[in-house]
RNA sequence: GCGCGGAUGGUCUAGUGGUAGGACCUGAGCCUUCCAAGCUCAUGGCCCGGGUUCAAAUCCCGGUCCGCGCACCA
């Protein structure tokens, strides 16, 4: 967390909210640390019954908006992939740093760089860690920051990927994916077929990713296993434009890099359309997805007063991203990253293309076929074969390359070319050299990628934190979660007013009806009615239905429906109950309208 | 990974070198005609491993985990 992400807030009150939320989450089944019976390990959390349902609802909402509503394809790739995938993606090298921390001042340095800069060793990265430690001791290397001696200080290997072996033995190393994105990129050659080779198209994936964090912190904000919802949107950089008209009026709070670098800088309130016109957001594609994301975040329950988009500073951006914005929410006075929107260019597909040898391109047809002159060769193999033996194939490749780059070489009686450092000369007539007119109907291009990448766990945490409320009802303190009906894990509680066979029987029938209507229902007949309301308030259940004597005795049977936030009650006929509640769940009806 | 602080039923907590008490929760029952009411009973705990000691939940060491700061976050 860097300094510009901090804001001044009253810590004593905000800390209480977080502590209370974590306590509530444990007690009410939202989330808790895993494997507690075995002492737990850091950074692993289990979502309990409520948490799993909430997370599932958030994922469904994401799927509706970013896959279905956008016409994108969803896939589900493995979490373990073989080593070459991560060689290509750059994760293997990027993760494998040797770090040494100064015991005096705490500064971390690249141990291999330290050795290379101060000794005769030129490729320290190839040394094993004990060797590097020996060299540091031998040369009495010191901390570059404060000058303290580093001899005897342990060198740490920082690879944030979890390694494993695929199959028996260690001949096939693999890694748990550190981001879901690679599972999409590696399958691009097939995915583009499913898109009928038409750009633009998008592929989404919701799944787990794994990073062996040095220091997991702050409950589910930073864990070692977490859920991402990612969209990789593939575009033709020269032709494809987003439909900004759909999002241009969306109001956003932006915190551009220029404002962050300015001492007096501040967040700016604007619209997506204006931000693009004024070049605040460089990529219209990134702007488009910011415009889609903002109302979506609001719909699942993020408090828009504690939400912003922050541009990455130039030093903060990954090497492949030309522009990157984060969606951030404020928790305890700190801004936490909930999503990143990056323009990744052709970095990923190019890398996989190079490393795999497969084609990570899309054929782009020209409007009009082009006619081009092209120099070609069609060598006489009955001559080259006897002449060059096993090298004949290489000769053909060399002649093809030569024809493409220097057709003048073929203008004489003979042509000269080099093969493995030796110059050869053969008659041009044996090469089948010709300049022909060819028709090209298109070209293979590497699409660019726009990547909205969401952290589901951090979003769930934010939704819970922003939903946490305390108030008073009839002089009694109350805690409740103001969760949106769309994502609330339990939608309705059903209670008989008191212990009574008639009430309980009727309540049971209503539970069945509501479940049949597809609602998440909980039944509770314990203790008095007030306690049951409070219990549901605390898990964030938006509505409670109570069956009383009017329900079982009156001619027209009705129940009371109580709304969580206001505790207001209305009487609803039993036979309209399922329909009414379903309409509220779908957002087609408000409780106030009843 | 380093530094500081911490770890007692499901949750929150009191406590002492002689194996623990409360509150809430939960369950059973009574009572109860709409917001954590009352009464009775019940379930359930000293993070793990070593050491010191007649005796360790308590003291010491190590580990695990949590919080905060530093570092890290491709």
TrEMBL record:
The family this protein is said to belong to: Belongs to the class-II aminoacyl-tRNA synthetase family.
Keyword tags: Aminoacyl-tRNA synthetase, ATP-binding, Ligase, Nucleotide-binding, Protein biosynthesis
Enzyme class: ligase
EC number(s) given by UniProt: 6.1.1.14
Domain Aminoacyl-transfer RNA synthetases class-II family profile: 19-485
GO cellular component: cytoplasm
Gene Ontology molecular-function annotations: ATP binding; glycine-tRNA ligase activity
Gene3D superfamilies, sorted: 3.30.40.230, Anticodon-binding domain, Bira Bifunctional Protein, Domain 2
Cited PANTHER family: GLYCINE--TRNA LIGASE (PTHR10745:SF0), GLYCYL-TRNA SYNTHETASE/DNA POLYMERASE SUBUNIT GAMMA-2 (PTHR10745)
Annotated Pfam families: HGTP_anticodon, tRNA-synt_2b
Location in or out of the cell: Cytoplasm
UniProt GO BP: glycyl-tRNA aminoacylation
SUPFAM superfamilies documented for this protein: Class II aaRS ABD-related, Class II aaRS and biotin synthetases
Name of the protein in question: glycine--tRNA ligase
